[in-house]
Amino acid sequence: MRTDKKQKEEKIKMIGNHKVKNQIVSTCFLLCLVLISPLLMSNASANYSSEEEKRVADIDLRYETRKAEMELTHGEYATWSIEAKAELDQMLIDENYPIGDFVINTLPNPTDTQEHHAIELATSEIKEKLNPNFDKKNFETLLSFFSIPSENQRLWVVEFINSSDQDEEKYIVEFTSPNKQVELCAYYVNGIMKKSSFGSKAQAEGIRDEGSINSYRTTVIKHAKQFMMDQYGFEEDALIYFNSNAKWSEERGEWIVNFTSNKYNPSKVGTYTIVVNGETGLVIDYVWDLELDYQKQGPKDPWKLADLWSSYEYNRFANLKIESQNIIDQAGGENKMSFEQHAAYDSLYRSAGYDRKQYFRGLPSSSDASPQEIKYLIQETVKEKYHIASEKFNRAEWKLAFDVSDSSNHYWRVILLLDEGTVYIRAEVDAHGTRVYEIEMIEGNNG
Q1: Domain boundary among 78, 98, 118
Q2: Which residues, 6+ apart, have CB-to-CB distance to 52 below 8 Å?
Q3: What is the pTM of this model?
Q4: Residue 302 lies in a domain
Q5: Among 24, 85, 371, 386, which residue is least crowded by beta carbons within 10 Å?
């Protein structure tokens, strides 16, 4: 379906033989998609929060179906011409799909850089920046032309790929259209970036001007982040939790870019330093100051327990933050999470190795009492112990949690608010709902 910036990077990195797949495979995929589509739509329909979400989901499904159909004719998606890709994505434009920050395949306008000029420019950049002996005749050429509506920008991506059974080498050049500003020029072997360059030579020569230094700093950091992903394996989402700065060294003619954690203990994450040559735009040196220490330690399970964090732990940390925030967003706020959402939230942190006493909420098993049974037990106990009338419970506010902090002794925590919160009752009950451990009532304003 649509391609966001991260997906575009992944698409650019795709490594394979890029030959037309067996049409039987594509046919099977298409048939499976058609067969399961009604089931997917019926199962998902109840989860739509608005008609717009339902409309977008319907477009997504028809988009994937159309893509599978077109692969029968054009082969594997990565090998399609820019015309075929644009034809598919035209569906999104025609149906007023919410593009947002996503990129979309389109065709060059008359004022844009045309296809043959794009290939020539990419070839010239590679020869100038990476390999003077580069010959595109030895490579398969793959092209993409994107529109980025949110940035009012259009982008050429030219890939030259040479594959064998053992290895694959690939050159990638990205540049804007029609102004031909080079965003990336890189060389990969088996998916690992070996050389890279940012911007054109003219841009690099201009960075000695103070104004140009300030304006170009953002571009330098952008491509340093790409290097962090390619060389160290950071996911794009994880880089959100780093501070980055780029300093220009006039004496050395280099950019020095540093990345430090802004969310977790920096002393446990260390500093990543990337040095970029100001003349060529190539990464000429890079270092992580904790690399040797981390090699001695290695990954831990669960990952939170590791004393030092590499990209392995930091990626999981970022994913944890995103997944837990998604639960909060779905609830409409941290204080609006349901019993099940609280349990799911805490479970994420326990699985990662966080303190079970802090993230204690879980779900009862089939042999444990249900929330409804616990409410009934507490209500009857309160009525008998404190002589509270039944009608007082009509507007009661319940807060239940199933405590799993002790893996061998689960129990229920209950808070009951009556009379608009002026009566506060706290109780603890065994997991099976057979015994009330303790209960107390406090009267007064507890709101």
Answers
A1: 98
A2: 98
A3: 0.56
A4: no
A5: 24
